[in-house]
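Figure S7 source data.
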Amino acid sequence: MNLPTETLPTDAPWIVVKFGGTSVSTRPRWDNIATIVGAHRAKGKRVLIVVSALSGITDQLKAIGEAHADASRCRELYLGIVERHHALYRDMQLPSRNALDGWLARLDQLLGDARRPAGELSWQAELLAHGELLSSTLGALYLNARGLTTHWLDSREFFLARPQPNQGAWGRWLSASVEVAPDPAVATALAARGDVFIAQGFIARHDDGATAILGRGGSDTSASYFGALLKAEAVEIWTDVPGMFSANPRQVPDARLLSRLDYAEAQEIATTGAKVLHPRCIHPVREVRVPLVIKDTNRPELPGTAIGPNVAHAATSIKAISSRKGITLVSMESIGMWQQVGFLADVFDAFKRHGLSVDLIGSAETNVTVSLDPSDNLLTSDVLSRLCADLEPFCRVKVIAPCAAVTVVGRGMRSMLHKLSAVLAEFGALDVHLISQSSNNLNLTFVVDEALADALIPRLHALLIRAEAMRVDDAAVFGPSWRELAHGAGDDARATWWRTRRDDLLAIAAEATPRYVYDLGHVRAQARGLAAIGAVDRWHYALKANPHADILRALHAEGFAFECVSWDEVEHVRRTLPDLPCERILFTPNFAPREEYRAALAAGVRVTLDALHPIAEWGADFAGHDILLRVDLGAGRGHHDKVKTGGAQSKFGVSLDEIEAFRAHARTHGARITGLHAHLGSGILDAQHWRSVYVQMASLAEQFNRVEVLDLGGGLGVPSRPEDAPLDLDALAAALAEVKQAYPQFKLWMEPGRYLVAEAGVLLARVTQLKRKGDVRYVGLDAGMNSLIRPALYEAWHDIVNLTRLDDAPGEVVQVVGPICESGDTLGNHRRLATCAEGDVVLVAEAGAYGAVMASRYNLREPAAEIVLP
Ligand code: ADP
Ligand code: ASP
Ligand code: MG
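Tokens for the predicted aspartic acid complex:
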């Protein structure tokens, strides 16, 4: 590395760079640190590096603190810590170990310290500090060995812990705060010593010089303190993710990078659980308006998250969803409390006496419930039982734990409540202990049982995007998803045949619009992908998705059978495919009139019954026939409520408790139930879903005598948004093969519709007019809900592009609307397409399923005609 040797001018700007545990744990990471620091230095910046302990070391030191009474356990943990540092030292091939061994010897002395057996807090603080003392020492040795002159500093010389009002002893020693103001004298004194410094995160000192700790994760806050003290140009938090995301990316792969945040929002996201920033690290930099940046040590080229004063031109949006676990709720019930002066003062006084800081509060006529957060409090069962004893004279106390606080964060929360209906519905199905809306209008928090949180958060995140409460289209704030960053943007799983056939499509549109255009090659490719799944004995195409004759012929040639839901569909297939044996047509109607069943039976078509009524009232019609029974396994799945086809709220299927009655009628009339069918919804991208449906159906089928066929229905999803992962066909094949092996006696049938045709079709329309109203811009098309009703009906999301200007940069955010006299006539909300002009051709993707077939002549406007590409 070419390093500048001259010293920088005294007034050279400072940059504070903080590296977290994983960023300092290996030699390659330290090489990254050297590069990052070297680059700043080369640009004329003076650099102060703040480091965490090697990952896991603070936990080990904490374990020593907890095992304080057990000397041999303490020693065992100590030896592990020694070995970990020696191993990195060896790997770094450093010349001398003296400095490192000095700290290890001091740590050894602490094991023999008189305060150890009682585990005194001052001893614990000193113990914990060693993680950072060791890592900063190794770092200084390594950077100097690489030729980057780096001066080691002891952070305790700079930061004096300031006791907070009513702070308990635990907080004073182990969760301390520091008051820092810019001090040019400190900056000048350091500048006289050199250009690059390294110091510890996490630690400060008390008046008497004793060590204080800033709280778990507190190294971020140390970096902020240094940033404020030196009035740095920026504080950079280098960690193991490329920024702050709209949810913990390890929990929600679709979480989006938050490119820019203001201090208050970042504060709120950090406080409510996003571990990537220590909650106390915003305040010091905010006071002096030093920007904070979060970046990935392993991928320094990624832009990260910039946190500073207000973000101009950002849309009102939910920014993130976060959660905190280990929350304890204290519910206090008192009949006499209503309007009783001083009740709250009395109960809160008890919390104060125990040094407990209350987080959320909910109150009712006879109840006050508060939450206690473990990161602010020492929540031992001992402390809690003493608290309860003190509260008992005033009220009946109930402790509810462990809970999780799930928080939705965004500026102007109250103005977004109407967009949260789907989120509220999700919580409505759970037992919510407490809801709290912050008075700063930045957050809405729900406290639920801890066990529910992990599954809930990815669901809520998806709902927030779908309801457009989280405006991920706003490129000023939202960057790529974690998944995209992990796999590269090129991993967009959606079919884009229409890009390569753009000229053909523009030629079609030049003749007339609107037009649906289908690519049969894509239909065939999808069909072959499915046909390769060996466990499925027979595939049916659910032609309600798109009954175009060419598509039926193509799928017939691929060996597909057909599933129809009306007698007219049956006739349409027979007309289109005269050589198709009727036995390869499955008729699965719902609330159809009696004649349709009769006609189907007479034609030799397989009939599925999905209600008691036909067999109970018209049983004789089915005498001597093989029938399939559609069961409702009880819970629906799918991309929208309106496509979930299971559960009591759905009109499909015979519920489990009516199956016996159904069998009795079938027996009476001599109808044979030879197959069971279940279809729980559509747009499902989780391959494991069908495994569980098959298992449920197979165990049900074992109770019947003659069931030969299990029909798992359809519902195979296709990705529509860029971040959607495609259905993993290999995983589906493996899951089905596994269940098939467990129940080899059944034939497995499936009936996909959308999967085969959705991506094969696009809708071409022409821009008619442009409009602006207030901040909202509209692009009007000659196709609307009369051609494609899915966005209005299911809030379906279709990719929309300006095909005429496909390669232009995205323009402003627009509403893409049609010409129908309905305010719901929108094809896409908040889209960023290349700037449109009248006459441009706009393409709506993934329109091959439930597009043309659902079209209408509403407003007496002809819907888009259909064209099949040769
Ligand atoms: P460091 O050791 O670098 O200080 P931390 O483990 O303290 O790193 O913080 C980074 C971790 O924070 C990430 O690995 C991620 O799992 C977690 N995290 C939680 N919520 C978020 C979020 N909203 N955005 C980014 N990371 C988050
Ligand atoms: N090492 C400390 C901890 O693990 C501080 C930090 O990493 O920020 O909590
Ligand atoms: Mg951290």
